[in-house]
Amino acid sequence: MPDKARPETATLLPPIKVETLVNGGAGLARHEGRVIFIPHTAAGDNVRCRITKSKKHYAEAELVEIIEPADQRRIPNCPVAGICGGCQWQHLPYSEQLIWKNKLFRETLTRQCGVDPDRVLPIVPAPNEWNYRSRVQVKCHNSSAGFITGFYQSKSHSVVAIDSCPIIAAGLNGLLAELRQIFNQTPFANQIHQFDLAIDDEQKRSVTIHYPGENTDLLAEHLRAARLDADLLIKMGAANSLTTVQGSGVLQIQVDDPQLRLNYAAGSFAQVNLEQNRSLVATVLALANLSGKEDLVDLYCGMGNFSLPLARMCGRITGIEESPASITFARQNAIHNQIKNSSFLCAPAEKGLREILKHQAIELILLDPPRQGATGVIKEITQNPVSKLIYVSCDPQTLARDLKQLIAHGYELISSQPFDMFPQTHHCESVTLLQRK
After folding, report:
1. pTM, entire model
2. Based on C-alpha coordinates, what's the Rg of the chain?
3. Residue 129 phi/psi, 5° resolution?
4. Both 231 and 283 in a single domain?
5. What ranges make up the beta strands (E) of 225-278?
6. Which of 31-35, 235-239, 399-403 has the lowest mean pLDDT?
7. Per-residue exposure over 227-264, b if at least 16 CB sit within 10 Å of its own CB, e if not
8. For residue 332, which of 260, 408, 407, 436 has the smallest C-alpha distance?
9. Is 113 a catalytic residue?
């Protein structure tokens, strides 16, 4: 019988107790010998839940009622926590979130890679658990109640309306309120489905409006008349062509000491937690432990977040990035910060690395891949090993997969440290140092 037709789907279970939390943020309970995963629960909760997906050895469920809450549970700060798909752990005190992130990260590496637990360092807490997000994609919907903004409900495309979000920067909440007012009851509201909001270290704000409709000139005129204190861009049509309405669309982050000022385009990648990013960069610099003569490669380098601070400490560094816009900014950032021992190559990471390793001896490779990890790059490294690797990861599962390959091919894990870049969620950043045996 197909899973979707299993008769117990949508069944309301009798009260069960949540035993622990798992990767992905859900609580784990058991019923009649089968594991049940229940989001938005805490270890120790006694709950009633309803099965939503049934498999042979486990089931997924939705929380229906907390019969007896765990001692450590708190009241979420947000009225739609547990409904909106953005946060999973607002019901846990921040100290408790850190305990679980630390535990789950350590277990992932020790169980999947055989890493010595003593080499997994304690998590670095975020300076602020609220209002830390500097970038956010907000969904829009024109309803009978007016123009609403918010986030998709978990596992759906239904927009959960919010007036403000406690984890995004205060300046972006203010901007969001202005945008709702500007577009409510206008002809544009039906065709606007997303805002990309960002704020930088100088508190400069930008908004990119996703608008597949016609009359772009009228929309631009409407925006200019609103006199928003933000750079304004419109992303149009299937080709996602970008039109700048107001301002430059250029934002800035600050890293290292003495300070480097790095520009990037609104919509390009930058870490969402700007304060914690500075801690991450400082940790990478310390782990690199450079003499000033080494040749380095920075894969997935973006606008130079790691490349340019590292350039101050090495002989030469090459940054590799697939995004032409990010490479352009990396080159400009090197010039503006008077860094002359860096070069930047626009190419897929594995292809660019392969070309460099043909012609250069590299002492250190730093990689900061997207969530899916770096399978192709890991293959290149195992075939052409270098003495030292620093792996910055935003996903412990793909990190463990890649580390397992590196360890099997002669690399020793020296240290791995999680960083909490995303309070109120289960997500975890990390930086891992490996050395060739």
Report:
1. 0.94
2. 23
3. -85, -10
4. no
5. 231-236, 241-246, 250-255, 260-265
6. 235-239
7. ebebbbbbbbeeeeeebebbbebbbebebbeeebebbb
8. 260
9. no
User: Do 414 and 283 belong together in one domain?
Assistant: yes
Looking at mean pLDDT, say which of 8-17, 65-74, 78-87 comes out highest.
Answer: 65-74
Cα 209 to Cα 193: distance, rounded to the nearest angstrom: 8
Number of helices followed by number of strands (H, E) in the chain: 9, 22
Per the structure, the complete domain to which residue 149 belongs is given by 135-249
> Is residue 10 very low, low, confident or very high in pLDDT (cuts 50, 70, 90)?
confident
Model confidence pLDDT, tens digit, residues 218-242: 999 999 999 999 999 999 866 568 8
Both 283 and 371 in one domain: the answer is: yes
Q: What are phi and psi of 229, to 5 degrees?
A: -85, 75
Specify whether 344 is located in the same domain as 238.
Answer: no
Shared domain for 293 and 410, answered yes or no, is yes
pLDDT at 5: 40
Does 424 score more than 60 pLDDT?
yes
Residue type, 367: L
Domain holding 211: CATH number? 2.40.50.1070
| Cβ atoms within 10 Å of 318's Cβ, excluding its own | 22
pLDDT of residue 241: 82
11 and 121 co-located in one domain: no
Q: Which residue of the set 87, 113, 301, 394 is catalytic?
A: 394
Residues 396 and 315 in one domain: yes
CA 344/CA 296 separation, integer angstroms: 12
